[in-house]
Design brief:
alpha/beta, GMP Synthetase, Chain A, domain 3, 2 domains, eleven-stranded mixed beta sheet, four-stranded mixed beta sheet, 13 helices, palmitate
């Protein structure tokens, strides 16, 4: 039933197409995922994952006609061309129908392509009337988009929907920077903040992992943040809605679920020049699990845990900021936005060199954590004897 509903959702953009561009389902290939990469010779490799409605119906019923092997619900094809548009048009020589892109759920960008700059992809996607602006965008690390799109998960008939589901789940845990195409169009035009895009890697032939962040500078990939650096970055930029943080305690461990968080960045000026970056984060959490042996009976016990939690979050923010400043010289946090808004005259002078200025500024990071509840019990299940 879930697969049937999914097929209907994917086909809705086709059915709702205006009369001026009427299409018949029998005459098109419904694209669920798009990959863009660059070959060693500099040409563009475009990969499409296409849904097979008949095979999808067979998959949902759990059997194929005559007891034969079930047909695959999707197929994946790649083509190399001079440009993205050229590769897509030329792909008609190996696929039987017109490619319909409005149903694209995920866009996977290759590492080699991103290192040379993503403006070409954004130019094509912005011009193409079929582009789906709510498409999730990811950068493939140590693997090609084609290899990602050929993954065959056991838990989902359509790999693109499986990938989209992992993005949603990981974003909830604040371990990936979720980026939709519409946001990418806006971010690439913003001179005050550098672009970041979520990262995807391949675990095996059935599994991918969407954790971490690709860091860009002037539209080109310059490096990566791991899952913990990503969370520090998201805390500072006020994009953490919920997550679980593990902290060390005496003779055990504790998992704290962050239920509320706010982050604020600022730039302190002195004598007309930026003197210091400022990051302030406030968060609230509850104890989800405690494997220590000491009861949590007093306010002092909770206060000590809050200090440890604050230190853990601060450590992740420091790691992310150090990466952005020292390794990449890329203001992904958007401190330039603050300067542009409150110090416009200074910004006009340094906007082209702001990343260099940003990379040399010291930072003051403050984290205030509150533990609101300890759960239904205050004492651990295992106590000191």
């Amino acid at each position: 039933m879930r697969v049937k509903k999914l097929a209907i959702v994917l086909m809705l953009p086709v059915l709702l197409t205006g009369c001026w561009d009427n299409v018949d389902l029998a005459d098109i290939n419904i694209v669920t995922a798009l990959g863009i990469d660059k070959a060693e010779d500099g040409k563009i490799i475009v990969t499409v994952q296409v849904i097979e409605p008949a095979a999808l119906q067979s998959t949902s019923s759990g059997q194929a006609r005559g007891g034969s092997a079930q047909p695959k619900p999707v197929f994946v094809e790649s083509y190399k061309g001079e440009t993205i548009y050229d590769a897509l048009i030329s792909m008609k020589s190996i696929v039987d129908k017109r490619l319909f892109l409005s149903t694209t759920q995920v866009l996977i960008l290759g590492e080699r392509f991103c290192k040379d700059g993503i403006n070409e992809a954004l130019d094509f996607l912005h011009r193409d009337y079929q582009s789906e602006y709510l498409t999730d965008v990811l950068v493939a690390k140590d693997v090609t988009p084609e290899q990602i799109l050929k993954v065959q998960p056991d838990m989902e008939a359509i790999p693109a929907m499986y990938i989209k589901g992992t993005i949603e789940n990981t974003a909830i845990r604040a371990k990936v920077k979720r980026t939709m195409l519409i946001n990418l169009f806006k971010d690439i035009e913003n001179k005050c903040r550098q672009v970041t895009i979520g990262q995807i890697t391949k675990e095996n032939e059935k599994t991918v992992k969407t954790e971490g962040t690709a860091v860009f500078k002037d539209g080109k990939l310059v490096g990566w943040l791991d899952q913990y650096q990503t969370r520090g970055y998201l805390f500072a930029t006020d994009k953490v809605k919920s997550t679980v943080i593990n902290i060390p305690v005496t003779n055990g461990k504790m998992s704290i679920e962050v239920s509320n968080s706010s982050g604020k960045i600022d730039v302190e000026f002195k004598n007309g020049e930026p003197a210091r970056l400022s990051v302030q984060v406030r968060l609230e959490g509850i104890i989800g699990e405690y494997t220590g042996k000491k009861p949590l009976n007093s306010p002092d016990d909770i206060y000590k845990l809050e200090k440890i939690l604050s230190q853990e979050v601060k450590k992740e923010i420091v790691m992310a900021l150090n990466k952005a400043q020292k390794d990449y010289s890329s203001d992904i946090f958007g401190f330039g936005t603050v300067v542009h808004k409150y110090y416009p005259h200074y910004w006009k002078k340094v906007m082209d060199e702001w990343n260099d200025v940003f990379s040399k500024l010291p930072a003051d990071i403050k984290v205030e954590a509150k533990i609101m509840r300890a759960g239904l019990i205050k004492s651990p299940m295992m106590k000191d004897e």
